[in-house]
Structures
1.
Amino acid sequence: MDQQRFDDVDRYLDALFVADDPVLDATLRSLADAGMPSISVSPTQGRFLTILTRVSRARRVLEIGTLAGYSTICLARGLSSDGRLVSLEYDARYADVARANVERARLSDVVEIRVGRAIDTLPALADEPPFDLIFIDADKASYPEYLEWSVRLSRPGTLIVADNVVRDGEVLNPDSSDENIRELRRFNELVASDERLEATALQVAGAKGLDGIAFAVVR
Ligand code: SAH
Ligand code: DHB
Ligand code: MG
């Protein structure tokens, strides 16, 4: 299996399952126009996030790492009519782009984007009711801290999802010179061994190479 085959299969599945979505298409255009990195979840992964939100009957969703709001829109689409999503983003310019995309998706009443380092904006959320689903997708070096915060902001049954936990298999290297990889390895060990969680991770091949997504349910 090679990268060309992963590209072709992604194109095939995207066309089959997520074709003709003007809101998501416009979101990806806005990202390119603003010169933002092309690191949104893929269309089929986005649909998977919608499905996870829907099957978990989530009413409160937390996202850490908004970018242009692609995953934000996908998560929010799975919410029931009284649902709410809070997304945390460091870059104020990215948050502005994301807000315009959320508006285009007619989800402005549902989605709130808070600007700042997540480690600084997470504590205020402890005063709110717990979240039903939490999607971790910001700076990889902070994943261990985001896991701890996620458990703190959860209730029994909360689903925690974390993107990018395989990174082309680089997480196999315990001596990586990249701090992001070392902290992702630590995150994987923490999520796997935490007695408060029932967890797993799946590797995902696609147009962006080989990566993985971790899942944990709070006991
Ligand atoms: N979830 C998005 C992609 C997020 S990319 C999607 O799939 O559509 C990662 C995002 O995390 C970037 O927008 C980056 O600016 C943001 N980020 C990086 N460090 C952060 C921090 N310390 N706190 C909050 N957001 C951060
Ligand atoms: C990067 C971040 C992501 O969230 C992602 O899905 C892919 C790549 C990155 O920072 O390189
Ligand atoms: Mg990601």
Note: The longest strand covers residues 197-206.
2.
Amino acid sequence: MKTIVANWKMYVGTRESIALARGVLLALRGKKVLPHMVVCPPAVALSEVRKVVARSHVALGGQNISWLVQGAQTGEMTARMLSELGATHVLVGHSERRHQLGENDEMVQKKMAAALTAGLTPILCVGETREEREAGRAKEVVGAQLHAVFAHTQPRTRDRFFVAYEPVWAIGTGVPATPADAVEMHTFIRTHLHEMGKGLRDEQFSILYGGSVDGKNAYTFLRESAVDGVLVGSASVKLAQFSEILGAAMDVLEAQAVTK
Ligand code: PGA
């Protein structure tokens, strides 16, 4: 299976989110093999988008949660509140939150734990900066981000989660990683997770690539067996681009069905 996660960030308000969600459903209509789909609208649009995607196979995700179960944290939303709005997934530790809003490894770890406890499927974002890659430290940095979470959070057998490898330098820049670099890092992440999470089964997690994925390059990532899907930001709010990405996923899934 391949998963496409659309992160609409703060690009669209409620009205545009409704239109986008409708457009996504139209792009999927009548197709036989569908990728697993998650759309993450801004929090204000969640309840309206929920109505549009209800009874479709498109899942709803949040872009962030608090690590608290309840209490004084002005402006934040708990995992349970998100779940009450109909979300089943949530982004955790997105690089924009880590780098613009000071979210550190400890907060990310607590958010992962809060999401799993509330029964949400977290999408944990990890990735190195340009300087770290140039210094040859990409795996060390990603390994440390994973360690910070999984040294303290042991997923239960019923838990499912995603890891999104999103190199910071590739996000919103139009310069994606090469598919070969993504495959190398995904293989590292998979091995690392098995080493840390004793008893973790392969079916419990999927690894996505994110960072400047668009209609032109999506296929080159999705056709790799080490890449379970893509996390798409700016191209996910342009319906024509996003339809091409969905088309690429369907091509890959159809080709896989033929070779099976
Ligand atoms: P981008 O963003 O596709 O605009 O690079 C990806 C992300 O931030 O998840």
Note: Strands lie at 3-7, 36-40, 58-62, 89-92, 121-126, 161-165, 205-210, 229-232.
